[in-house]
Amino acid sequence: MKGQETRGFQSEVKQLLHLMIHSLYSNKEIFLRELISNASDAADKLRFRALSNPDLYEGDGELRVRVSFDKDKRTLDHCR
């Protein structure tokens, strides 16, 4: 491209992580939605890569996102 210019970009990773952890992920609903969304994105990426390399699948190749909770312990479990 004619006249293309490249510029550097810097970020303060510590500050970004602090901001995300203490604002975004402190809200329980957003935290859970992000967790499920990230797992779903990872499954989509694996599906795409497995088109050219089926060996990437473990087991039956059926990908799932499962979230279960233990009311007594007040915990969530997340697995793919």
From TrEMBL:
Q: Name one GO molecular function term.
A: ATP-dependent protein folding chaperone
Where does the chain cross the membrane? none
The answer on whether this UniProt entry bears the keyword Methyltransferase reads no
Q: Which UniProt keywords apply?
A: ATP-binding, Chaperone, Nucleotide-binding
Q: Report the SUPFAM superfamilies cross-referenced here.
A: ATPase domain of HSP90 chaperone/DNA topoisomerase II/histidine kinase (SSF55874)
Q: Which PANTHER family match?
A: HEAT SHOCK PROTEIN 90 FAMILY MEMBER
Which family does the UniProt entry place this protein in?
Answer: Belongs to the heat shock protein 90 family.
Name the UniProt record assigns to this protein:
Chaperone protein HtpG
